[in-house]
Fold each of these.
Amino acid sequence: MARFGSRYGELDEAVGDPTLEQHVFDLAALEKQEASKHLFDQVGWDEYLRAGVFLSQSEFQLLERAQDNIDFAMGNATSAKALANLLMKLADKCTASIPAQQYVFTRVEEILQCSESEFSSRAALFTVDGVNIQDGPFLRALRSNDSYIQKSSSVGLALLLTACKGEVNSLITWLCEMLSSDTQGATDISIPALTVLMRKESCRKPFAAKGGIGIVVNVMNRLGRNGNAQQLYDLTFCLWTLSLDDAADIPAFLHSGAIGTLTEMVLAAPSRKVVRMAIAALLNLTTGNDEGVLTEMLTGGLTKILENMIHANAHKQAGDPEVEHDVRNLFEVLMRNYRDFSTYDRWVSEVKTGNLRWGIVHTEKFWRENAKLLEGNDFEMLKVLISLLVSDSPTVVAVALYDLGEFTRFYPNGRGVVKSLGGKDSAMELIGHSDKVIQRHALQCISKIMVTNW
């Protein structure tokens, strides 16, 4: 299994500041200290002082002193706790002021940007009892209409959850919603917090349980090989952390197409650090010698990619012994398990993982040569294929419809077999699908079932 040590130290590199909506300054592009100084001047402190409800003169003076020297304020346990309590009070009470909310959560992030030796004690400042986070203001801020507040509060809460107890499931639910959203900028807002949260081993399992592995893979596929290199690295890092545990959710990695996506990252090489992390994740997944994992890697061409890297000494050029170690180890694992795969073997591997994708095993030539092979084990693989017609992936459904139609054409009495297994009824239900591609393939599939000479 890959080591967590030195790569764990790359987390600061992983959590970049994406460009969010523009304010007077691009706050996301500023260091936290610069951003908090700018925001401090934007908050209407005089109004709060005159009202005398949310802020007293002595509290404002504490904010001013801390603004001049945050380390000085943190150096005294009493003033540090007073400042943290004050920030949480402002976050809880001053909800109508966007600058105040922006300032508070930026300040929290700044306080938590400290040495490892200081982190636990600083995180404890934002708890009610030294253990449980005062997370109400953070959870409310996640639903803000301001993207900067959402991003800053989510990162702050994620940082706290790596050291203290809190509503981790609420943050995970929000992250899954944002990463799955089509809203512009939603992934930019949520990726940094996810990258932080995946540091914590206890947070990975609940994220995976909510379909997190598939969600991350979908975001990576949307970005594509030419997408933002920093975001691809962040997401690959998340998959790596999810592959670390001995109890890693192997079925989720298989069914989501994660192995193919990680292989694509190695081949495309959007940056060296993406390649490094993708190879480390793939190596982790081989530790259990799962047949499905090894088959997916072998049929996906990973062996040839690694062989080319070794022959070109590409694995040594980065000057990183861990990269060289991981490339060679992964290549050796695959070579020990290497075997020639027929095109039918590849098709079976795709169907079993539920990750159908257009290619040479979804063509007329393939079905003309292999349709009869599906009769084994009482048409077991045909039954699995039909079950994929209810997949959440439009591509999987479209490919499954194509394959079902082609089987009907080339297998003797294919129409009768497909009808008896419920394939015709399942395909009929997809004729009115909202996705036009699925709709087209459903019509073609039904036509092949109904027409004697297609």
Amino acid sequence: FNQYLRWLADHENSNKQPNAHFRQQWKSMCIPSGSYDYVIPLEYSNLFSDDVEQRINTSQKLMGSYDRSSDPRKQASTLRAREWLSQQDSKLIERLYSIFEADFALMNYSNFSHPDFPLPLHDN
């Protein structure tokens, strides 16, 4: 995992990254040329399903996460990410965060180290 994170950080602007899931998402989402009403992370899309359904007048439910927990802070992927990332060098994590900062802002994610990751940061 550590070697992959280092490779990812070292090749941030490279076309060598074969899997689009691990690239900066804002580059592939056609923003600002796209017209989006919502950009909702999969981890908590089911929480917004009723609101979206009502606003766009449809009975189609959002897919939601594959995890059993509806609380994104307790989903298996979040718990693994928090555990694995906490074992990494803090400078590497800061570097990755700076690379993917636009994605974090787009998806309204908090930083890895925030206790409510991946939920959005709220002003007090």
Amino acid sequence: MVTKRRTSAPGLTTNASAQLKYRPFVETGRWASKGTKPLPNPATVPEIFTKVMIHCCKKVLYVDPKIRLMFYAVLLFFFSLVADYMPFPKTYFSNTGNFFNQYFVKFSWGWTFALVGFFTFLTSSVYCCANRLQVGRHLLRIIIGTLVWFIWTTLFASIEEMTGKCIYTTPGTPTEVLYSRGRRSCLKGGGKWTSFDISGHSFLLIWCVLFIIEETKPIIGWDLIEDHIRNEEHKRAESTFAKELPETPLSSLTSDDFNTVKSLYKKFGIGAKILVVFLTLLTLIWDLMLVMTACYFHIMIEKVIGGLIATLMWSATYGCFYRINTPLSPGLPGSGNFKYSNFQHGSSAKPLSSISPLKPKPKDIDEIPTFMGMPLYALRNKRNNKETTVDSLHSLNVPSQ
């Protein structure tokens, strides 16, 4: 039996038929307006590697200050006290001529000054929109740190000279004690120099570590600037719906300042991250040499006084003076024409958009569950069905399972 093939109605094309069969599913609701922000570019392998490195550096640098200071207190007091009565075995680090002592500790402030100064210049140029006056004020903190180092180390040397004495012992003759000779002339003459020598290494190493930690705080949330630039650029280009788009930290900038931030961040962004890696390695070296100082050099009271002075100067500058809003104060690191992070100096810091994993962000009731950025409509329908069932059971006074 032969049947005739049914033909489509005249004027109805194949595309029209397909449109009738497959109608696009359009979500309505508050979630439909989401996704208006531009997407970031795909991350490259070097960018991922850099992010991992910076994450590891933050774990090293931004330990809770209370824990770090407690570690220094135990190290300089208890370890030093043990070393005074039960000396530790001699090692490579007990020799003052070791590589780290000769080329790092002796020039510790020089290393810290150069790297931190360069980092401060790069970062402050970005968040201060290349304003020379503001950048100069941030660099003033480097000069103040240098004055702290110079004044206290000079004072320590003066105290050593004032309290020192040179002892000469010759077999068969009485011991001769001279107070007028300096340390160098005493040692050259074959004498033994004794004095109250406040540990300059304990002071300087702790001061350098705390100085690095505070001055590198602008790296927290540094990657957010790229997101803010992308969103702000999209907002300024979208003239029709500009008022409906959310504000960004860069919205208050003029066009010239915004273009300056965009240009300098692209130019200096990777350089700031590289400097943070080197400063982290420098911090690890300073901590290592502080442990060696506690084990092999000076007596306990000399090391405790040196560490205590460094901690007090850190608290006086970054905890008090830099927080005062006066023309004499250079301000805290990260203060500029826009705020991209809410880190706090003297405490464990978090970026502006960070959310504690113990306190998740409350979700919109109409928000669609997502996986890797893709909406999961089935889960949303399942959740709505479950909520409907629970409401029905409550209306019937039936306990839900």
Amino acid sequence: MIPDNEVESNSGHKDSNQQRSCTEVTCSYLFGAVCLGWAGIVVYGLLSGNLSQLQYPRNSTGELCGYGNLAHRPKLLYLDITRCAGISPAKGACPTPQICIEECPGTYWSLAQGGSSGLELFCKLGANLTTGISQLVVERTCPAYLVPSRSVQGRCVPALGLAESKIAAIKTEDGGDITADRLSEGREHVIMSVENDGLFAYLPDYWWIALLCFLFTLVLTLVWTVLAKIFTKPVLMTTFVLCPVVCVALSVSCMARFVLLKMGSNANQVDSFITNMSSYWYNMYTWLGLGIISGVPTLFIVLFFIFSSKHIRTSIDITEEAMQAFHSPKLILIFSLIIFLVQVLLILLLVTVACLLSTTGSPEYRVVQACQSETCKNNKTEKMFEQNDICEPSSFTDCTGCPKAQCVFHQFNPSTLGYFLQVVNLVAIIWLLYFVNSLGCLMIATVFGDCYGGNRRAEDLSKNGIMISFRTSCRYHLGTAACAPLKQVSCCLGDTLGYVFTALYGD
């Protein structure tokens, strides 16, 4: 507790803020430059990105299903998905045409049955069935067969548990047989191509999970704030103990899961068709990444508690004194809610900008069904085009000498600038999050200082303390809050290196 005589001796002094001016101008300018740079990244993402690419797949010509002229056809159908069997999406494209359709097929059909009502829904847009279904199959406008399918990120793949007797009666366009194993291998190709798109591709379907996490965090924050007001010292002591314990437990559990999956004989053989997102649960590299991501901050937290253990009790006493400055629980809740909402808004902006940047780049096309008699020359290799060579559809179609060779869409490649801007976007948002947190701490410190070092009472500050402390912090401490992350990192590294050199070389 601060002695009463000190409070009384300080109450007669003139408010020190009247003799101060703006400080840490350099840090303020640096922070302003970072904000302007991040704003430029946002503008670049809005102008160059397209969030529809995360929600809809592309057909063989590179057009987005469910977008533009194909707005009523959001699903992607592989005319013969068995041709995708055994092909790694990272190395080659599936050598079968892919077209946009309205809904995935829900029944069995084969070319031997002839034309039927509604078949035009599974053909290319504008297909004329009066030409004859056999001719349309040869022209690769319509599929030679259909099987019940379900959608995986907009891509139609054969459903599980298909009747083998019905599959055995189906033939491909070349008259080949179809087996359940070939359909399963083709399905795996599609699943792997979806996983290669990254986590951003799942946001349109799983955004509600992130929303629930934010709401849970909000409730937890408000509950913790109320408890900290009532039982300040016990809550803070419990937090100091649980924070490193939970972080270490999280890192260890992730690495243990990684080791368990790696040692298992079927670690990566689990059928990824279970659900789109749940396949990450069975992927050992998911847990390795989470272990590394959680391990780095855990290391800093543990080092911080080790090197600052002597000051924890003092900080708890000071915090307990500061909490007494807020006599209104409603004021504490409002203060915490404002900081939380601002940080949530920044995180949402981070995710939105990251999604936009991930869609900046150019589509990549590759040659499929190439032949030995190819007459079209690849200018990059100075040889004739071969299977899976990168190509340009506009020139390859008129150049190729193979009857079935095509230049089809393979994948979308983000630009190098996009990768760089992703890193800058992440750093800028982390900086802004630290800034908001530091500004909030300075606002609390301002209230604490005015109560115990100034001539105002806590009851007076509780009425409009937020606005008073906000104006004071922005006027006199904006640079301090802006450069707080740099100061914390430099101090932590300096203390760590100091302890290391002392341990190695002595005093």
